[in-house]
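User: Structure tokens for this complex, please. No commentary.
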Amino acid sequence: MPRVYNFSAGPAMLPEYVLKDAAAEMLDYKGTGMSVMEMSHRSPAFTAIIKTAERDLRDLMNIPDNYKVLFLQGGASLQFAGIPMNLSLPKNGKADYIVDGSWSEKAYKEAARFIDAKCIASSKDTNFDRIPDLSDLPIRDDADYVYICENETIHGLTYPEIPDTKGHILVSDQSSMFLSKPVDVSKYGLIYGGVQKNVGPAGVVIVIVREDLLPEDKIDGVPTMMNLRVHADKESLYNTPPCYGIYICGKVFKYLKAQGGLEAMAIRNAEKAKILYDAIDESKLFKCAVADPAQRSKMNVPFVTGNPDLDKKFVEEAALAGLWNLKGHRSVGGLRASIYNAVPREGVIALVDFMKKFEAENL
Ligand SMILES: *Cc1c(COP(=O)(O)O)cnc(C)c1O
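Assistant:
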């Protein structure tokens, strides 16, 4: 079967070049006579893989030297607990959350199990169709950090700019926008993301954290494996890391560098998103809940026909046309196209052509 256009929100498409390159090295990684899956995480070959991956990620994102880069496990969801445990529990035990969708809401609720977490702005009352009002946020003076989910995967929302945290540390879940455009790392205390959205295979979560925010290596009641200082001191090799996933991420980093880096990705992603949003706005059948163009995610594009049966028919017929995984998240229904870095422009054009055909047949 030829490769399909896969609009899954995650795990999602990876560059074909990377998959072929990994396939070619599957049985014999660079003359070691073994697969990366079979080698010790302390071997010279794997040491080179993880060091090179970190260096390439630092180059791509222009990560300042006073930030640590960690390759961990447990997905973004484990950090919903890890972040309050590391950045707040040993300090004031208070953090303020902006809730603009399901992921930030989950993170907020999880944090509230361990610290005094407060939701200081939310767009829940309008079904997360916008970023909440960020002017003059009621941040508590002794809040250890302010938390955002910068791209809400399910609702298709993104922050046009980061909020004014009034000098407080900003923590950002960038899972579904990681490496989609340049970000100024120095404006954040901690950035993290599961890689299975826009970077690599499920099983790796990347944490970029300012060194001075790392806790002591023992925090009462916090498992050693949850302690970011422990992982930072051991350079992500405290225990066996997700070796093969890190190896694939490393290949994606090299590939993105060769493609012109994050500036180039941002231009391409903006073009792809414009093609799709324009088609939705011009259509009489499809609608997008997020009205403000500046807040529309360039990675995840949710839309609806307004008729659940018609949405279902769309998903089924699209798959027959080679356009896969267009169903909206189970919590919100409707349709969603995730158009991450590896989804080619031709895929978006094929989707738009299919939408026009479907509209003509069904309106
Ligand atoms: C998918 C996603 C998560 C959860 O990621 P897991 O790796 O499955 O835990 C968290 N935040 C955002 C924004 C996501 O898109």
